[in-house]
Specification:
The chain is built from five helices and eight strands; from the N terminus they run H-H-E-E-E-E-E-E-E-E-H-H-H. With about 220 residues, the protein is α+β, with helices and mostly antiparallel strands. The longest helix has 26 residues, at about 20-45. InterPro entries: CS_CacyBP (IPR037893), CS_dom (IPR007052), SGS_dom (IPR007699), Siah-Interact_N (IPR015120).
Length: about 220
C-alpha cells in the first residue's frame, strides 16, 4: 500500500507542475495533502513494535478433597436413673458447648454426638433401648461438668435396664421331662442325711430302680 501511495504522489506532483488553473491546482494540492497524511499514518503504524501477547500459564489445581468422615471417641460409661415417666442418663464431660451437641432420638434408640471438646469429638449411642420412648419429648441439658439426657417413656413403668434385653424367663423343664429326677434327688438327700440302715435301704432301692426291678424307688422305704 505504501508503494502505491508513493507512486500516486509522484504523478500528482508532476501534474502540479503542469497545471496552471487555480481550481485545478487546488484540487491537486488537496489530493497531495491527503495522500501524504495517508502515507505518514501507514509509516507510523508499520513502525510500531509488535506487543507480544502473554498467554497465562495454566494454573495447576491440586486441591485435595476434604474428608467428610469425623472420628469419634465412644462414651460407653454413664450413669442413669428413672421414675415411672422418664429415664435420665448422666455423662461426665467438661467443656461442652451446647451448640455443638447433636442429639437424635428414635422410639427405640438414641445417638448423641458431641463435637470439638478440647480438640476431640465424642459419641454415645444406644442402638436398642429397653423399651420405647417419645422422641419429641426427649431433651439434652449441658451442665459445666456433665450432660443430662432426659428420655420420656412411651408407657409408664419400671425399666430393668436401659439396654434392651430379651425376655429369657423360660422355665427349665428338664426335671419335668424325667419324672424320676425329683424322686432321685430326694433319695440322694435322704441317703446323705440318713443312718447306716437308711443308707443300705436307699442304696438297694436305688439299684433296683436302675436295674428295672421296680418302677418306684421309694417302695420299701
Amino acid at each position: 500500500m505504501a508503494e502505491e501511495v508513493a507512486l500516486d504522489l509522484d504523478e500528482l506532483r508532476q501534474l502540479q507542475n503542469i497545471a496552471k488553473r487555480p481550481r485545478v491546482l487546488n484540487l491537486i494540492n488537496s489530493e497531495i495533502s491527503n495522500l501524504e497524511k495517508l502515507r505518514d499514518s501507514a509509516v507510523s503504524s508499520s513502525a510500531k513494535p509488535e506487543v507480544p501477547v502473554t498467554v497465562p500459564a495454566p494454573v495447576s489445581s491440586s486441591v485435595k478433597p476434604v474428608s467428610s468422615a469425623v472420628n469419634y471417641v465412644t462414651l460407653g460409661t454413664f450413669s442413669w436413673d428413672q421414675d415411672n415417666e422418664k429415664v435420665k442418663m448422666y455423662i461426665s464431660l467438661e467443656g461442652v458447648d451446647e451448640d455443638k451437641v447433636q442429639a437424635e432420638f428414635k422410639p427405640m434408640s438414641l445417638d448423641i454426638k458431641i463435637h470439638d471438646v478440647q480438640g476431640k469429638n465424642y459419641r454415645c449411642t444406644i442402638p436398642k433401648l429397653h423399651k420405647e420412648i417419645v422422641p419429641e419429648k426427649c431433651k439434652v441439658l449441658v451442665k459445666p461438668k456433665r450432660i443430662v439426657i432426659t428420655m420420656f417413656k412411651s408407657s409408664r413403668g419400671n425399666w430393668l435396664d436401659i439396654h434392651h434385653k430379651e425376655d429369657k424367663i423360660k422355665p427349665s423343664l428338664e426335671k419335668e421331662k424325667d419324672p424320676m429326677a425329683g424322686i432321685m434327688g430326694m433319695m440322694k438327700n435322704l441317703y446323705e442325711d440318713g443312718d447306716e440302715e437308711m443308707k443300705k435301704t436307699i442304696a438297694k432301692a436305688w439299684t433296683d430302680a436302675r436295674s428295672g426291678k421296680t418302677a418306684d424307688p421309694l417302695k420299701g422305704l
